[in-house]
Amino acid sequence: MHKHNINYIISVCSIASLAGLILGYDASVISGAIEPLTEYFDLTPAECGLAVSSAIIGCILGAYFVGYLADKYGRRTTLMLANILLMISAIGSAITDVFSLFILYRVLGGIAIGMVSTVTPLYIAEFSPKDIRGRMLGLQQLVMVGGQLIVYIVNFTIAKGMIHEWVVEFGWRWMLASVLLPCVLFMFLSFLIPESPRWNVMKNHDQKAMDTLTKISNQLHAQHLFNEIKASFVDSAKVNKIGFFSVLSNAKSRYITLIGCTIAVLQQLTGINILLYYAPSLLKNITGSNQESLFQTIFLGIALFVGVFIALRFIDNVGRVKLLRLGSIGCCLCLIISALTFYFNIIGYLPITLLVIFVLIYAISWSLGAWLLISEIFPNRIRAVAMGISFSAMYLSNALIAQVFPMMNQNDWLMATFNGGFPLLICAASCLFGYWFIGRFLPETKGISLEKIEPVMLSKSKRFAAKS
To answer: Do 439 and 356 have their domain in common?
Structure first.
């Protein structure tokens, strides 16, 4: 029996997870800044959507192309490069007075987020022992939603007690610039973690790989694991040549990749990012106060953090399918009732309570569940490319939602008819579709080794089930 150096593993994964904190922080900081910067730049509803979705467009590019950088220069080096891009984006978007430059800086930041969101779980998965890999990946997700909670508190603190004119002129700048703090912290701590041992083996840095593997466990186990990793790269030499069109041209690969893309898109269509990006704007429909709506977003962040923490304890016991289907029903009910409170103009704590419950249910089910499934449903030969396609689909749907929501939320007819609740009804319908899709196409994957995942994923296909 080998014994892992748990303290060392947790330390390294915690530092790597700080990149996830920056991801969550930067992705959500716009929620508090969008109202004042909309007034500052005098934006139309379409331009307001562009101010948010521009970063997500960058995410699509970053997630799609980061594989080349991570393979050529290393996982840790790529994370450090993304961190530098985020710092440039934070400074540039905070000081500019030109909206077109603001958009360019936000796209740059989005490219960095796309890089981080792909490479962070890749690094942690390659570094962690297989028997605790799920919990370490869950740690990254927990830290990411922690970043979202922190940014809600920071945004509220910056705006609290300040006159409206100051928030419009300077407040949103401080909100965007505050991303620098976690970026600087990660930059210093990243020098303390090693490069991925798997990447070192791939680049024939064998001694560096052995040094890291030995620190993770012991010399005997490290040598055994090193031999397995070395053999896997020899056996998969042809696999590494698989690209985008190779995946989509193979019927079985295309089928599984389509499932991954649909899961990624459905996670976005639950409506979670409407709350993350536009929570103050959405809540202002019922509170009438920008500072009050900023304060209430803190409760959404707390619910997200608590929900992911609960998910860490149950997802390997309850199973992915059951958790996602129950989550779909719970989210749907909360969204429908929340839409009714908007429609009937019910003010007070009921609307925010319903939205908090929605976020809690989402965090327990779809938040961690979707990311975990995208990481485990693909066969070894297509995993890297298929994950890139799925994350690109996730960010593309994210960008469309961010672009369309302010146009719906400021549409005179929709506001007069639904009083701001129409987007919630669209998301509720998406949750119902998600309930059906998961039950129809997704088999249970808990406890299934990655080497045996393909026939399991094909088991619900009428075309491939008998052949697999």
So the answer is: yes
